[in-house]
Structures are given as C-alpha cells and as structure tokens.
Design a protein that fits this description.
With 293 residues, the protein is mainly α. It has helices spanning 11-37, 55-61, 64-97, 102-110, 117-128, 134-141, 152-180, 184-192, 197-208, 210-227, 229-235, 247-257, 261-286, and strands at 40-42, 49-51. Strands 1-2 form a two-stranded antiparallel ribbon.
Length: 293
C-alpha cells in the first residue's frame, strides 16, 4: 500500500479544518448546550435559570405522557421502517424485471423523495381528509367509518403510510444499485438447477444485498425517529389525544408550545441517547448476520 506524503506538514490539518469546524459548530456545540440546558430550570422567556441537576430527567421519565410517547414512537418507527423497506425492495425487484421503459419507471419511483416532509404530509391529509378527501369519500362509500382526526389508530395508520411513502424512493435507489451488483451467472445457474424465483431471491439475491439492507435499516430507524416531524405536524399535530405524538414531536411541543425549556432539553438528550443505543445494538447484533463479499 502506497503511503500518501504531503509536501507540507500543516496541509493535512488545513484540509481537515473546515469539516472539523462544521462538526464542532453544528453538532458538538448544540449537543453540549442541550446537555447543559437539560440540567436547568428556566422561566418561559429564558431570563432566569436555576441549576437542578437531574431533576428534569426524573420528571420526564416519571411522566405518563412521555411514556406514552415512547410507546407511540416504537410502534411508529418499527411500522414505518418495515413498510418503507419492504415496499422499496418489492419495487426494486419489479424494476429489474421491466424490459421496456425501465428508466421512466425508475424515475417515477424516485420523484417522491424530492417532496418536502411537510408537503408529503399535506398531500396525504388532503387525500384522506374526512370532510373533503377523495379516498376518505371512497372509504365511507364502502361502509368504512374513516376519521383520523378522531380515531387514534386511523391517525397512526395515516402517518405511517405517509412517512413510509416519503422514504420508499430513498430505499429504492439503494436496493436497485444492490440488485444490479448481484452476478447474473449465479441466478442463471440456480434457475438451471430448477430453483424457483422465490427460492432464488431468498437464497442468493437477498443474502448478497444484506449489507445494503443493514445500512438502510440504520438509516430508516434514524429517519423514523427524527425526520418525520414535518409529516406528523402537518397531518395530525400529534393527535388525536396524543395518539401520534412521537418523542421528537413531544420535544417540540414541550419546548416551543408549552415553553418547558429544561424538560424539552432533557427529552432531546434522552432521545439522542436512545438513537445512539439503537444504532449500537444494530451494529453489535444485526451486523453479525450480514455477510460482506
């Protein structure tokens, strides 16, 4: 292996300086401020503060509303990640079988990723709005009582579908790239041996795209925890009766609406710790089942 040699000893540090500065200013500094603020008791306007240690964390963890948000977040994140990845894998597999118009087919599936989360939420809200939504009218006409503004289960279903739809395009891109890297000779050899298309997929294709699947599992978990705020805010606003109030939405609601700055900061620290722990668990246990070529 050839070792890189720089003509000036300061050049490597100068090249790294912009990235280090961005990381410090936009990640470590806000994170340290959130950790510090989580130990303070502040008035709604931030004019007075009092150091209370871990009191905010104790109040948050003992709050039934927060525990309900934990349950909601688990259901929402698991459902969103599974649905988004399963549909994306199905569409990517179907795209590989298209003979004519494959480029157009892929382009249509990629477009939803360009839609902002809030806009995606509004699109689904308009389609399934109980008073004027087209699909809501079809559901009522079929005899199904549809009203996500009053029914918590229906509201959860709506935000899960909207969030998964927004993420399918991202997953689709990676699955298409992974499927194209699978050697055709292996699939053809299995077909000659009499293996069905389903067996070929689960015994040959899926194990070979396991690294991509694992990567998307981590990305979709983080997406469900953080990037779905705009969708939930646009569709349900955390309701009805906190049925769709995830942890990230509760951080916003307590901090910017209820002006509980210390409690909101404590929740953000806990949320960050949960996501870091989940990611570490995924790398520790799930990655063992991933085989890299």
């Amino acid at each position: 292996m050839q070792k890189a040699v720089f003509p000036n000893k300061l050049l490597p540090y100068l090249l790294l300086a912009p990235q280090v500065a961005i990381t410090l200013v936009f990640f470590y500094w806000p994170a340290s401020q959130a950790l510090y603020q989580s130990m303070l008791k502040e008035d709604p306007f931030g004019l007075k503060s009092k150091f209370v240690g871990l009191q905010n964390f104790a109040q948050v963890l003992g709050n039934p509303d927060y525990l309900n948000s934990v349950r909601v977040t688990v259901v929402f994140s698991v459902s969103t990640a599974v649905l988004a990845m399963a549909l994306a894998l199905f569409l990517a597999t179907a795209a590989e079988k298209v003979v004519r118009g494959k480029g157009f087919y892929r382009t249509m599936l990629i477009w939803p990723y360009a839609v902002a989360p809030a806009v995606a939420g509004l699109l689904w809200l308009f389609m399934f709005n109980p008073s004027m939504g087209t699909f809501a009218y079809l559901l009522r006409d079929a005899g199904y009582r549809w009203n996500p503004l009053l029914d918590g289960d229906q509201a959860m279903l709506l935000v899960v579908v909207a969030a998964a739809w927004k993420q399918i395009s991202y997953n689709f891109l990676f699955f298409v790239a992974a499927l194209q890297s699978v050697p055709r000779s292996l699939i053809e050899a299995a077909a000659i041996d009499g293996a069905s298309s389903t067996k070929r997929f689960w015994t040959i294709v899926f194990p070979l795209i396991a690294p991509t699947t694992f990567f998307l599992l981590v990305v979709n978990t983080v997406y469900a925890f953080f990037d779905t705020f705009g969708i939930i805010d646009a569709v349900t606003g955390g309701g009805p009766a906190q049925a769709t109030q995830t942890l990230v939405y509760k951080v916003y609601n307590d901090g910017f609406v209820n002006l509980d700055l210390g409690g909101s900061a404590a929740q953000s620290v806990i949320l960050m710790a949960i996501v870091i722990a989940l990611t570490a668990i995924q790398f520790r246990y799930v990655e063992k089942r991933v085989h890299y070529a």
